[in-house]
Write a structure and sequence with these properties.
- The protein is mainly alpha-helical.
- It is about 65% helix and about 0% strand.
- The chain has one domain: Four Helix Bundle (Hemerythrin (Met), subunit A), CATH 1.20.120.
- It is built from eight helices and no strands.
Length: about 190
C-alpha cells in the first residue's frame, strides 16, 4: 500500500467516526462539562476538523485553509486557528457557537479536499521534513506560544508522521474523549 493511500484511509476513518460520534451525541451532551478542567464536547468537536485543516493546508502545504473560504468563513464558529492555548472562557464561548451539522459539512468538504491533495503527493514529499513551524510563524493566527510548544516536537519530522499523528491519532483520541465525557455526564445526570 502506498503511504498516501494509507493516510487517506486514516482520514476517511476519522471522518466516519466524526459522523458516528455526532449521531450518538444527545443535544444536552454538547455543552455539558462532565469533568472539571476539561473542554466542552462542542469545543473538542470543533477542534478536530480545525486541526486537520490547519495541519494539512497551513502547516504542510502553506496554502490558505479551507476555513477561510465560503461558506465556512461566514460561520459563527469560524476561527483562523485550531484552538490551541485557549482559556476555558474562550473555549466555552466558541463551543456555544458550534453547530454540529455545519461542522459535519465542513469536515466532509475538508476530507474531500485533503483526499484530492493526497492523490498528488509523492512518497518523497511525504518523507521530507515538514515546514509547519515556518508556516505557523508566518501566519498571524498561529503566533501563540502554546502553538509553538505543540508544534515543536514535530520540527524536522517527515510529513507522513505529522499527518498520521496529528490528523489521525490526535483526532481519534479526541473523538474517544468526547464519547467518554458525554457518557460521564449522562451517568451523573441520570
Amino acid at each position: 500500500m502506498q503511504a498516501n493511500r494509507l493516510i487517506a484511509s486514516q482520514l476517511n476513518a476519522v471522518n466516519h467516526q466524526f459522523h458516528e460520534v455526532a449521531a450518538w451525541m444527545r443535544p444536552d451532551d454538547w455543552l455539558r462539562r462532565s469533568v472539571p478542567g476539561t473542554s466542552l464536547p462542542a469545543f473538542t468537536f470543533w477542534h478536530i476538523p480545525r486541526v486537520i485543516d490547519t495541519t494539512v493546508n497551513m502547516g504542510i502545504r502553506g496554502v490558505p485553509e479551507l476555513i477561510s473560504a465560503q461558506p465556512w468563513a461566514a460561520k459563527r464558529w469560524a476561527r483562523p486557528e485550531g484552538g490551541v492555548g485557549y482559556s476555558e472562557e474562550e473555549a466555552d464561548h466558541l463551543a456555544a457557537d458550534v453547530v454540529p451539522a455545519e461542522l459535519l459539512e465542513y469536515a466532509d468538504a475538508l476530507r474531500s479536499q485533503v483526499s484530492q491533495w493526497l492523490k498528488t503527493i509523492t512518497d518523497e514529499e511525504l518523507e521530507a521534513p515538514n515546514t509547519f513551524m515556518d508556516h505557523a510563524r508566518a501566519s498571524g493566527a498561529y503566533t501563540r506560544p502554546e502553538v509553538e510548544q505543540a508544534i515543536a516536537p514535530f520540527v524536522g519530522q517527515p510529513v507522513w508522521l505529522l499527518l498520521s499523528i496529528t490528523c489521525y491519532a490526535h483526532c481519534w483520541a479526541h473523538l474517544e474523549e468526547i464519547r467518554m465525557l458525554a457518557s460521564v455526564g449522562r451517568a451523573t445526570n441520570s
